Amino acid sequence: MGGGARELAGYLAALAGWVAALAAAVLPQWRQSSYAGDAIITAVGLHEGLWMSCAAQSTGQVQCRLHDSLLSLEGHIQTSRALMVISLLLGFFGIIVSVVGMKCTKVGEEDPVTKSRIAVAGGVLFILSGLCTLAAVSLYATQVTYEFFRESTIPINARYEFGSALFVGWGAASLSMLGGSLLCCSCPAKERLGQQYRRQPPPSTAREYV
User: What is the number of other CB atoms lying within 10 angstroms of the CB of residue 8?
Assistant: First the structure.
């Protein structure tokens, strides 16, 4: 795969990861009601996310309510919120920076070394964005797992388990880091050597006579 094709594939993967991270951040299915156990399954399913909690009835009606207070939220929710916001900001800047640095764009093509460095910077931003998404989702999943398996008087079918947004977030983190890694494969050092080689004058074969 050539350098331009590799950069384009990395950019598309990272862009898909950023869109998936945005979807995971706004989805309310970070944790959902568990139907484990032998008790009768209720007709109402509960979902909770970073910004709202929802109740879905068997009739198809869904009612959602935004979290009333930020300071009253649990620590892992506040931390996951902050990490997802940072991840989306890093990914947004990575999208802009990578477009400038990619070989298939016309911006700054007169200086390919600087252009490659900009592409690498965009890749680093995507990798950092993916790491923030991975940290946010993993932290939330760890808390859900702890609350599910800890000893409590709450019946097991009334506890929470992983929601679909967590799996979307893990996929988004993987795509962002993969795309960022492909963008980081741009090597400005080689291009600099190639430029210096092209700038060297060809050896002269004619002899000068006095």
Answer: 17
**Close Cβ partners of 155 (under 8 Å, ≥ 6 residues apart):** 37, 39
Angle at 175 between CA 169 and CA 180, to 5 degrees: 125
Low-confidence winner among 80-84, 147-151, 204-208 (lowest mean pLDDT): 204-208
Domains assigned to the chain? 3-27+70-188 (1.20.140.150)
Contact between residue 136 and residue 80 where contact means Cβ atoms under 8 Å apart = yes
- The sheet that has 62-66: what strands, in order across it? 62-66, 52-57, 44-48, 31-33, 160-162
**Strands (E) located in 95-167:** 160-162
End-to-end CA distance of the chain: 54
- Whole-angstrom distance, CA of residue 153 vs CA of residue 144: 16
Query: What would the mean pLDDT of 21-44 be, rounded to a whole number?
Result: 75
pTM, to two decimals: 0.79
CB atoms within 10 A of CB 177: 22
- Mean pLDDT in residue range 184-205: 54
